[in-house]
Design a protein that fits this description.
Layout (H helix, E strand, L loop, with lengths): L1 E7 L2 E8 L5 E5 L5 E7 L5 E6 L2 E5 L5 E7 L3 E7 L5 E9 L10 H8 L1 H4 L5 E8 L2 H10 L6 H29 L3 H16 L7 H8 L3 H12 L3 H18 L5 H7 L5 H12 L8
């Protein structure tokens, strides 16, 4: 388990990462009341939030963006295992520092996360949603920074700003679209089906039958909720997974392509270059 704390202006950034061989439980508290957004990378680690006599659990955290208010009485518990490693990035500010945030960020928190700025309990959960591919790409890059020293901090600072911008932008879209909770649950289920069968996904009509939405509502709702069409989302996930496999030297380029469902190596390489700007063979 590694836990780094980085201060940027009036934000405190908590970067947590854990890769274990045996099931491990890790918990943390905050020293003062905070307003924060947590972004989860790969791993689907389990999260339990406990406070006083209450408890809230999250079992599918991969790609989750979760906003919340928490004081010193709230405990955040991650259950990590070999199949569920932890990648969590928390952008937090103290409740008293909201008005002093630069670049109108304080106004955005007040307007869009009012229930967190004016909490009524020890823990108040704000809006949460599955990150767009752009947001997921930023989170992934922050857990795999290749730079050092001042250059690393410059890159980190710029990506945190971009991530917050995407968060508030997506939050505004979701508020405008007003996707109802039951439909959101079905769309999340569609996402899970795609990820479970990433190398050989079912057709749209098959997914529609499994989640109980017709194909029109599936396509329209998926794009509104996740920011991209169904199979564009699938392609992004395939290429991101392949990139990680090659980068971590777990697979050759050919093996990674096959693993995520590409039969043609040239098609895989072309799609990879279009997304990342370089060929998979250029990863070091």
């Amino acid at each position: 388990m590694t836990r780094d704390i980085i201060d940027i202006n009036d934000f405190t950034i908590l970067v947590e990462e854990a890769k274990v061989n045996e099931p491990t439980v890790d918990s943390c508290f905050f020293d003062e009341p905070i307003i924060a957004v947590a972004f989860y990378g790969s791993g689907n680690v389990d999260l339990t939030v406990q406070y006083v006599n209450k408890e809230k659990g999250f079992n599918h955290t991969k790609g989750l963006a979760l906003s919340f208010y928490a004081d010193e009485k709230v405990e955040f518990i991650h259950s990590v295992s070999a199949s569920k490693p932890l990648e969590c990035l928390v952008i937090a500010t103290s409740a008293k520092a909201i008005e002093d945030l630069p670049n109108q960020e304080g106004e955005l928190f007040g307007e869009m996360l009012n229930q967190l700025v004016n909490p009524i309990d020890h823990y108040v959960e704000g809006p949460s949603f599955i990150m767009t591919p752009e947001m997921q790409s930023i989170v992934d890059s922050l857990f795999n920074i290749k730079y050092e020293g001042k250059t690393k901090m410059m890159f980190f600072r710029s990506q945190i700003t971009a991530l917050l911008s995407h968060f508030f932008g997506q939050l505004a879209i979701l508020k405008t679209d007003r996707i109802k909770t039951p439909e959101r649950e079905k769309l999340n289920l569609a996402k899970e089906i795609l990820l479970k069968h990433i190398d050989n996904p079912p057709s749209l009509s098959e997914i529609s039958k499994q989640i109980g939405l017709n194909t029109f509502k599936l396509k329209k709702g998926f794009k509104a909720f996740f920011g991209v069409p169904v199979f564009k989302y699938l392609q992004n996930e395939r290429l991101t997974l392949a990139h990680k496999m090659i980068r971590n030297q777990k697979s050759t380029v050919q093996e990674a392509a096959w693993h995520v469902g590409y039969e043609s190596l040239s098609s895989f390489s072309n799609a990879f270059e279009k997304k990342f700007g370089y060929r998979p063979s250029q990863i070091k």
